[in-house]
């Protein structure tokens, strides 16, 4: 696991010491590729194939000109961490400053360049929530194997302090 004091981002690379659920989703995504030079599409991704990862998964529709991303799925642990369910909302919608953050650029680059996007560090958007550190992986999906139309993602959170009845994430 990445040390909580680090803050790093990468495009096209997933660090081997990242959270186990990120590695599991990445390996699953790789196994879905119809050919080495093609991306998997939503039609290849069956959520039932990764049931233990679903609480941390998000799925975004990718729209162009300008780039906008709308949550189609926002996992239950994501809801718990964020304090609200963003299903059906656009990325950054509840946070007006989001458009100026470097995180948006990662989503756009993942879609434009058809690469994975990884980030680890302190939360920027939900600074007041009960987590100290997060890791995020964003994976491009393309129905035709080439034109990204969705992003599949997963997050891992390290809690600042456990609350009564909380589960490890």
Describe the model.
With 169 residues, the protein is α+β, with helices and mostly antiparallel strands. The protein has one domain: 2-Layer Sandwich (Beta-Lactamase), CATH 3.30.450. Helix content is 19%, strand content 26%.
Number of domains: 1
CATH class category label: Alpha Beta
Shape: globular
- Summarize model confidence as the mean pLDDT: 83
Order the strands across the largest sheet as they lie in space: 1-4-5-6-2-3
- What CATH calls the topology is Beta-Lactamase
Largest sheet: 6 strands, antiparallel
Count of runs of 4 or more consecutive helical residues: 3
How much of the sequence lies in strands comes to 25-35%
Topology at a glance:
Elements: E1 8-11, H1 20-32, E2 57-63, E3 68-74, H2 76-82, H3 102-113, E4 117-121, E5 131-141, E6 150-159
In short:
With 169 residues, the chain is of the alpha+beta class. It is built from three helices and six strands; from the N terminus they run βαββααβββ. The N terminus and C terminus are likely disordered.
